[in-house]
Write a structure and sequence with these properties.
The protein contains 5 helices and 19 strands. By secondary structure, it is α+β, with helices and mostly antiparallel strands. It has 2 domains: 52 residues, no CATH class; 213 residues, Fumarylacetoacetase-like, C-terminal domain (Fumarylacetoacetate hydrolase, domain 2, Alpha-Beta Complex), CATH 3.90.850.10. Strands 1, 2, 3, 4, 5, 6, 10, 11, 14 and 17 form a 10-stranded mixed sheet that branches. Strands 8-19-18-15-16 form a 5-stranded mixed sheet, with no helix packed on it. A two-stranded parallel ribbon has the order 7-13. The termini are far apart. It binds zinc ion (ZN).
Length: 285
């Protein structure tokens, strides 16, 4: 299934994109794609409900805004330097254990919402990433069973302010957590929609020009390893997001570096998971 949430920010309702591309409203059956939904077997129950109700459910008009396809995310755990070519372009060593950092959940926005360059930023950058959405509480999970804890996958742009991240001391979290720095979606593709999560092309363009063009086959640490590894340090809850790192081609990697400016347009996508687009604008608060 392809799950979407649609409507105004903070008031999104759950929907589904059917195999024929039609988008339907499923509020008659689902309250939201939140922790309770995943915890109570909501995916199976929705799939069953769709069998007899997909043709009669209200159709969502195409121009309606899409929100992030998952609600009540308690944390975004990001993996740094998970592609060798990206570690190299940043002049960093290839990690021997996954590098973890947090991104504030208040950064989450819809897939096509504007990205706002934060106040005093001159080094706002892009990072296309495969996001894993957790579907079941995971603590001390073995690699063998790790995928049982996955609800599905999404496109994520891990926007990063390089000065805040790398030049202002302390942890990377400062450069990762600004408002609008985590557009998620367009949809959550449930696990069964993705044949091989370790063979997905992912790409990102700025103003129509290809900047990143990678494949998850180049992961240093694969999805089962990451889930197992992270679950040894913290409990992952339904709706949590693991962002699995970005391939080469970020702005920081160019010589001279290329950073985003108001008016730019960023488009990104992952094979089977759709594409998103953000217009870049200046902070005006
Ligand atoms: Zn990242």
């Amino acid at each position: 299934m392809k799950l979407i949430r649609f409507g105004d920010p903070g008031k999104e309702k759950p929907g589904v994109i059917l195999p024929d591309g039609k988008k339907i409203d499923v509020t008659a059956h689902v309250e939201d794609y939140n922790m309770a939904f995943f915890q109570s077997g909501g995916l199976d129950s929705l799939s069953e409900w769709l069998e007899s109700n997909s043709t009669s459910a209200p159709v969502i008009r195409d121009h309606l805004r899409l929100g992030p396809p998952v609600a009540e995310t308690s944390k975004i755990v990001c993996v740094g330097l998970n592609y060798a070519d990206h570690a190299k372009e940043g002049g960093m060593a290839i990690p021997t254990e996954p590098i973890l950092f947090f991104k504030a959940t208040s950064a989450i926005v819809g897939p096509n919402d504007d990205m706002v360059i934060p106040r005093n930023s001159t080094k706002s950058d892009w990072e296309v990433e495969l996001a894993v959405i957790i579907g079941k509480k995971a603590s001390y999970v073995s690699e063998e069973y790790a995928l049982d804890y996955v609800a599905g996958y999404c496109v994520h742009n891990d926007y990063s302010e390089r000065e805040f991240q790398l030049e202002r001391g302390g942890q990377w979290v400062k450069g990762k957590s600004c408002d609008t720095f985590a557009p998620i979606g367009p949809f959550l593709a449930t696990k069964d929609e993705v044949e091989d999560v370790h063979n997905l092309r992912l790409w990102l363009k700025v103003n129509g020009e290809m900047k990143q063009d990678g494949n998850t086959s180049d992961f240093i640490f694969g999805v089962p390893h990451l889930i197992s590894y992270i679950s040894n340090f913290m409990t992952l809850l339904p709706g949590d997001i693991i962002s699995t790192g970005t391939p080469a081609g970020v702005g920081l990697g160019f010589n001279p570096p290329q950073y985003l400016k108001p008016g730019d347009e960023v488009e990104l996508g992952i094979e089977g998971l759709g594409a998103s687009r953000q217009r870049i604008r200046a902070y005006d608060g």
